[in-house]
Amino acid sequence: MTELNFLCTKCRREFDCDVGKISFPIEENRPRFEKEIVCPRCGIITMDEVELTELGQTQLGAVFMTELE
Ligand SMILES: [Zn+2]
Predict the structure, then answer these.
(1) Protein residues placing their CB within 5 Å of the ion ligand 1
(2) Contact 34/20 with Cβ under 8 angstroms?
């Protein structure tokens, strides 16, 4: 389980979400999550409706580094 810190652009709320396994497809410029992103207020939302916070980007970067090993 991998928790990332997101900011919902609909309700401007920050939340932690377990996105499951994260993969980094070379042909896509964004990571792919195993699970859906769920905002505690808005429910299931797409990646276009959320931003990674600074903390979330750090967390994602750490996952990316372990994938490279
Ligand atoms: Zn929301």
Answers:
(1) 8, 10-11, 39, 41-42
(2) yes
